[in-house]
Amino acid sequence: MSNLLNQKPKIINAGLDIFADANTLHLDWRPPGNGKSEINEKLKQLSRRKEIIDAANEKALEKVLNAQPVWTDVGIAKDTIPGFTENTIAHAGPPVAWENMCGPMQGSVIGALIYEGKAKTEEEARKIAPAMDFIPCHHLNAVGPMAGVFSANMPVIVVENKENGNLAYSPFNTEGRCKPFSFGAFEEETIAYLHSLRDEMMPALKKALQVKGDGIDLKMITAQALHMGDDCHNRLVAATGQLWKALVPELAKSGIPHGLLINLSYTMYYNNWYFLNFSMAASKATMDAARGIENSTLVTVMARNGTEVGIQVSGSGDKWFTTKAPKVRGMYFPAYTEADANPDMGDSAITETAGIGAFAMAAALPMTQLVGGTIQDAIGFTKNMRKITIGESRVYTIPTLNFIGSPTGIDVIKVIETGIEPIINTGIAHKNAGIGMVGAGLVNMPIEAFEKALLNM
Hints:
Blueprint: H1 2-6, E1 11-14, E2 24-27, H2 37-47, H3 50-65, E3 69-76, H4 77-80, E4 88-91, H5 103-115, H6 122-128, E5 133-136, E6 150-151, E7 155-161, E8 167-171, H7 188-212, E9 216-217, H8 218-226, H9 237-254, H10 258-269, H11 276-288, E10 299-305, E11 308-313, E12 321-324, E13 329-332, E14 345-346, H12 350-353, H13 368-371, H14 375-385, E15 389-398, E16 404-410, H15 412-418, E17 423-429, E18 437-444, H16 447-455
Parallel strand pairs: 1-2, 4-5
Antiparallel strand pairs: 3-7, 3-9, 4-6, 7-8, 10-11, 10-14, 11-12, 13-18, 15-16, 17-18
Helix pairs in contact: 5-7, 7-9, 8-9, 9-10, 15-16
């Protein structure tokens, strides 16, 4: 008590931290609902239904935690995904028309049209692009990184949630050995790589899965990778290695040509992000199980198309709540700066929605070198996200935090009440078509999308 009496009194600073200094105690406080009367009124209304909402959220969370995503098959998009036609082009994020697409998404569309043989040049592709049937990946139970673009004759990954029976799809990752198609590149080498995925690698992987019989458990690979320094969104070194470890015996038993086995091995060797699309499809299969639960405020989708970002909520089904896409705070490759960057894009935030990615950054401390920040920041991100989630994973645990479960199940109400915007780690695409990746960093899903969702409840 005497020590307390001898301490000098300090001023409490509430609100803006710019007024805080060494002689003050900063209170991180803001008015509920950012002081917006309609938001506060809605929060009061929802508080009277708290027991009903809590029960719905518990049901939704159990669907997420019990999910068992397994890679079961590969196939051509038009033959594999219900509703996919020759004129369909899937894209990331909420709906967007050709004329409103950002540069890198248009670049990927151009590449898809050249790949499909519908155009020979960029100019031809731009002329016919407006007539294509553009559909968000999420409307097809699919996800795609960055531009998220894939077309009728591209190969896709098939993931089944064995617990719930629903399927999710994703194209293959295109990073590593050429400029990545998903970042808007459409040079000749990129198109050639897409053809090799379809004509050589996809049939080999299909044979391996047929030999395996019961599929490859992606949830187990993700859990192991989190203990090996991955976050399974932007750092996937361990997960890619674990996937290859699971594949090699089956590929060898399938009798594929020796040269093709070597080609596949080098594809994964040169692409540390190879597992990303598997991680995304697994997260999509996981989160789709929680869709359509009446009164639930659990977020099932966070997605971005480079023009807008949007969320979907369990109790609101397929309805989008959108706002303008923000810029990413990040590290840039030599010769590039923030002026070159496109606003945030991609479906890959489905990983954060499922409780990994930046929500598990405390498990992936080496990744701070890629996206900027410190080890303390990474740990802080994970701890902070627990304030806006309904629960914790029982399988995805974080060694640096004494093996606590990763924060899982973003709650719209908690986001509004705390003012904490979900954190996402992501790549940065050049704003112009055809150039590709220029860096990586961090971004927050804007609170405006959550406010719109809240007002709809």
